[in-house]
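Bench notes, afternoon.
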Amino acid sequence: MRFSDFSSLRFLVVGAALSLGACSYGDSLLWPSSETTEEASAEAASSDGTDQVQVIGGGQPPIGATQFVPPGVTPGEPTGTFVGQKVVQLRDELGRLQSSIAQQNEELQRLRTGLVQNSQQYHGTIAAVNSRLQVGTTPGNPILVQQFKSAQADLDRIADEINYMNNLTAAVANNSTLSAYMAEAARAAFSVSGAVDEDHRQLAILEDEGNRTAVLIDRLLKELTSDVRRQTNYVTTERSNLNLLSAGIKSGELFGGSLVNRAVLSNSGQASMAGAPISTAGRTPLVVIRFDRADVPYEQALYTAVSKTLERRPNAMFDLVAVAPTIGGAARIALNSQKARQHAENVMRSLVEMGLPPNRVAVSAKTQQQAANNEVHLFVR
């Protein structure tokens, strides 16, 4: 079916009717599946149920909101014994540890505030670009290009803050090690001879406050690790979405979400022009792009076809075949073959920009007597 026939056919692709002149679809692979899928569950709450999570609008995943305030250190009078001196030393060390935790908490809250602000600014810019693309604009609109660069800068700042969070995680882990050492030292002090009752009373208080501090550090480390993991995945996904948005700005039209969000990542499959020929006998192409004129607008149709396929088969692999006609002598066929390969490379580049992992596509080339022009065929494997 050629796209020129679409003017009289209703086609279910994002609620729009497509009418392009240079592509055709294998229909059976594009209609929505009757099977339904369930969304992944939200992040589980912490084991003690006390940690707070703030939900950020605009697509950013939840981020922790707990304030990690140290419990404080109870003062005590020196007793003059050897154990009493150890108590004073441990009390000073616990005070320094809690002071370090307080500073780390302040740094964490500052980073969280920056993450939220940059994310809100990023999604506001992206929304403005998408709104303009949705109503249509000129290819490479310089206003959208500038907004795109601004969004990139916002996402880079988010990535920088995640790196700082990683460094903070390492510092908190060091404090966790110190806390364990201090707890062991406090327990050992109980068995030292020459102590008075007041020494043991103060040691018991220190042990209790040390244990509470250790629990606080564990919760801080747990929440930090969770924040870093969620926000790192978020930035990775948004970089893929930015690649697709860049392709939309170049063409002046809105595509949608990145294909990588629909695909089940796999290490199988290779993208290589030099690979073995791909057998297409008896196979119906998902998309046929006919390069019968300059600047064939195939991107939107290509995105829709692959997106719909991945909705039904998230682990689908694809074969991209450059097809050259056998018209003319050997020199003409060789020239057509070269041009067909270039077209296939451009289509492959478009798929990668749309978010499809390159290892999901195998690329090959062939000549075909029935072809009147250079073509690129996309098959579902």
